[in-house]
Specification:
With 138 residues, this protein is of the alpha/beta class. The protein has helices spanning 27-39, 50-57, 78-88, 122-135; strands spanning 19-23, 43-47, 65-69, 93-98, 112-114.
Length: 138
């Protein structure tokens, strides 16, 4: 398998877990966030840019939640990525992450976590987003 390959997993997941796509151009942060979520029992896929993320979203791989940085290199930010993702998967929930103040919050279709934040809070934020999905389907 080469970089950017998508592997569809048939592994059974424990109750309360989800398939999560983490997108951040900071590879170290992306890996660390994914690691925390895996430790919490989730199946996690990582992408370093919108192209890799869209490749995963266009595959048959289930994705319940997109966790994306807002400011990334290129012309596609996290808000635009979330809109493109929701065009492909209408029920997809989104959590944004950003270290920048003054971003247009009205573009967000999910909670915005302000970096830096302790990665240990990420599983609780994911649980809230998934609970919101059960309570109020998209």
């Amino acid at each position: 398998m080469g970089p950017g390959s998508v592997v569809v997993s048939d592994r059974k997941m424990p109750p309360g877990s989800a398939d999560i796509l983490v997108v951040d151009d900071d590879g170290v942060f992306c890996y660390a966030a994914a690691d925390v979520l895996r430790d919490a029992g989730h199946r996690v896929f990582q992408a370093l840019d919108h192209r890799m993320a869209l490749r995963i979203l266009e595959s048959p791989q289930p994705v319940d939640l997109l966790v994306t940085d807002v400011v990334m290199p290129g012309h596609v930010n996290g808000f635009a990525l979330a809109r493109m993702a929701r065009m492909r998967r209408l029920d997809l929930r989104v959590i944004y992450m950003t270290g920048y103040d003054g971003l247009p919050a009205d573009e967000a279709i999910g909670p915005v976590l302000r970096k830096p934040f302790p990665l240990e809070i990420l599983p609780a934020e994911v649980a809230r987003a998934l609970a919101a999905q059960r309570d109020d389907p998209a």
